[in-house]
Design brief:
243 residues; alpha/beta; D-Maltodextrin-Binding Protein, domain 2; 2 domains; 3-stranded antiparallel beta sheet; 13 strands; 40% helix; 22% strand
Length: 243
């Protein structure tokens, strides 16, 4: 039996495509309760990674979890070349330029201002806009982190005194207690989980609700451009069916 050169090339292309489609998604993650947690049996839990894993299994999409720093996650998605994704990111125009996004996986509760309980200067404010406008108060912020459109726009407009750090939320709280700055901004889910894990007493630290903060940010599964739209559609359908 003879094959034409063209036919042989087409067969090779189809085979390569089949192999590519069967490659598991690389899910880049970093444990950060309560959103991303690891169970003893190797599965994932948490408010974000738990539903992501369940939807992928329901959709029959092969995947593997790969530990990576937050910076490494976004750089891997930006670089592409592999079918990679990472759960829990906010969707922003600059990220949509190099990534694809699923339907929302989780929506945060409205953010809260976290401060030392003895810092009465913070408690005198009822809106985030007022706190950011108070030049006597220092905001502790994670370097390169987005707090969502509402807070990011207020930061840009008011330019509050800021202490930037690469620390995670646990580190930010420790720095807050060490009086390195006056307040941080966090989702209440984070604060509640962190307070339990660190054993922080109510008389040491407090979460303050602001009247102007809107409902929380939506968190998505962020994919590299190499992930097929059909895979994302299957994930979205399974995610919706599981709710």
């Amino acid at each position: 039996m003879r094959f034409s050169t063209v036919g042989f090339v087409l067969l090779l292309t189809a085979a390569a495509g089949a192999v590519s489609a069967a490659e598991p998604l690389q899910l880049l993650y970093q444990d950060r309760p309560p959103y991303y947690t690891s169970n003893n049996d190797g599965t994932k839990g948490g408010l974000v990674s738990g539903p992501v894993e369940q939807a992928l299994k329901k959709a029959g999409i092969p995947f593997t979890w790969v530990h990576s720093s937050g910076k490494g996650q976004i750089e891997s998605v930006r670089r592409g070349g592999d079918a990679v994704c990472t759960p829990g990111w906010f969707k922003k125009p600059e990220r949509e330029a190099f990534a694809k996004f699923s339907d929302p996986v989780y929506r945060d509760r409205p953010q809260v201002v976290v401060a030392r309980a003895d810092n009465r200067g913070v408690f005198g404010h009822r809106t985030l806009a007022d706190i950011f406008a108070d030049k006597q108060l220092r905001f502790g912020a994670k370097t390169g982190y987005s707090y969502g459109p509402f807070a990011d726009d207020l930061i840009a407009a008011n330019k509050p005194p800021m202490v930037r750090t690469t620390q995670d939320v646990s580190g930010l709280v420790r720095m807050l207690l060490g009086r390195r700055f006056d307040y941080i901004l966090a989702a209440p889910e984070q604060f509640e989980s962190l307070a339990d894990r660190l054993g922080i007493a109510g008389e040491d630290i407090a979460a303050i609700e602001m009247t102007d903060i809107p409902p929380g940010n939506r968190r998505y599964l962020m994919y590299s451009k190499d992930v097929a739209d059909s895979v994302i559609a299957k994930f979205n359908a399974a995610l919706a069916a599981g709710r």
